[in-house]
Amino acid sequence: MPPVLKKTVQRYFPALLIALFVSPVQKCTAQSVIELLQADVIEYDQEFVDAERVKGNVRFKQDEVFMDCDSAYFFRKENRVKAFGNIYIRQRDTFNLWGNYLEYNGDEKLAYVREDVRLRDQKMELTTDLVQYNVESKTAYYTTGGNIRNEQDRLYSRKGQYNSRSKTFFFKDSVVLTNPEYRMNSDTLHYNTVSKVAQFYGPTFIRSEENTIFCKNGWYNTAENTSQFSRGAWIQGETNRLEADSITYNRNSGIGRAFRDITLTDTMEKIKITGQEGITYRQDKRTKIYGDPLAVKYIDNDSLFLRSDTLIDHTDSLGKRFLSSYYNTELFKSDMQGVADSLVYAFTDSTIIMNGDPILWTEENQITGDTIVIYRRNGVLDKMDVKNEAFIASEEAPNTYNQIDGNYMTAFFRLNKLHKVDVEGNGQSVYYVKEEDSTYSGINHIVCSSMRILLDSNKVQDIIFYTDPSGGFYPVNQFPSDKKKLPNLKWLVDRRPRLEQFAILEH
Questions:
Q1: Distance CA 175, CA 173 (A)
Q2: What is the spatial distance between Cα 350 and Cα 346, in angstroms, rounded to a whole number?
Q3: In the chain, where are the structural domains located?
Q4: Chain centroid offset of residue 270 CA
């Protein structure tokens, strides 16, 4: 077979004369076909009978899109271009696209660009190995991994789509968003280069120096540092974890909100708080929980339950941390139970301060006053201060009570049992003296400015009186009925919290 004959026609043209080679029909439809505006050289090759080989400072145009390259095959009849070297595609006020190889279909208005691809749109730049760009819809696609730079934000994903009209990226598969303050990993993410809002769908982690955030749905405004997380959302700090149906957070102000089925866990303090709505102030180190909140503080093999209308976890200027409760407070622990208008628990030394008509029960004893301060040591009751209208009562028999009344009391405990009570100011006491066979030998009724009462297993062993004591010891059948109950006695055992009233949380 004879060799293939090859004939080349080569001509050199000034840029202004290129338009002479556009047919009359093409001129009439210039907005729908590719135009060759400029080239240093045009070659006609017999092997490429339908193509023109153009070289040197090549420029094409279709509608408002311009394409530059070093050289190209121009398939005029097919309305397509195959270009090589220094590819540069641009559209005014829309996008700029660079690469080293281009296939452009003018009928479909699709550009395939390979090798060192860069797509720039205002402050955003995408780099990848291969991109398909639809000029009509102004949408770019890549499937071989792409990196995006948008001011301080850096993004990567294996697959992606960019819409130049909406300035929105759609990322899929191994998505990573990096910011100076955090790093985000997601399965699917939408990102707007103007608003800088990232919307994520599927499992997403956001990691920073202060915490790690997880959710399956949400958004993050990287310009304003505001965010919202939902569907299995949680925030994990060094020693604490917040879980909720939905969480919003402003990193600049440090204010976060949580909604529905909230669980706040602190592993260092061994405490768990639940509720339906919460707000945290990072700068003030303060967190409020609303919506039937419940706190459980784990102490050795026991649990302290605390419930109220509002719970506040806060830290003072000295770094001491407290848990405060407000309105309708209920307290339950195996060795004590109580109710009050408000309560403060100190994490440092386990001190508890009860205010607003507080009532505390320890075994058989009911303790009331304006304020009750409970001190614990080694996980058990140590002592208690009862301020203003202090009163301790225990039921000996139905409608029969041991009673201690005074302005101020300090009660001391031994093995969680009342051991000693010091009374100061307007002291009064009524105590039934029981023999070993459980019969009553009599009743002590004493009025004294100050006194000390010593007890053993809740039985009075001795009473020491100070400053003008009066009263005495009465046989049971001779005790005046009007002295059986001191004026300030209020037996309120029906308000005593029970364990079944509290939701049991697993340790």
A1: 6
A2: 5
A3: 1-107, 357-497
A4: 19
Are the C-beta atoms of residues 90 and 66 closer than 8 Å to each other?
Answer: yes
Burial of 371 (0-12, 13-18, 19+ CB in 10 A): middle
| Residue-level pLDDT, tens digit, the chain, 507 residues | 333 333 344 444 443 333 333 433 343 334 579 999 999 999 876 666 688 999 999 999 998 899 999 999 999 889 999 999 999 999 877 789 999 999 999 999 999 999 999 999 888 899 999 999 998 888 999 999 999 998 888 999 999 999 988 989 999 888 999 988 889 999 899 999 889 899 999 999 999 888 899 999 999 998 898 999 999 999 998 888 999 999 999 988 989 999 999 999 998 889 999 999 999 998 888 999 999 999 999 887 889 999 999 999 999 988 899 999 999 999 999 889 999 999 999 998 889 999 999 999 988 899 999 999 999 888 788 899 999 999 999 998 888 999 999 999 999 988 878 889 999 998 999 988 877 777 788 898 989 888 888 888 767 778 888 877 888 889 988 888 888 999 999 999 999 999 888 865 444
Q: Answer whether 1-107 and 357-497 agree in fold.
A: yes
Candidates 253, 357, 359, 269; CA nearest to 315 is 269
Fold of domain 1-107: lipopolysaccharide transport protein A fold (2.60.450)
What is the CATH number that goes with domain 357-497? 2.60.450
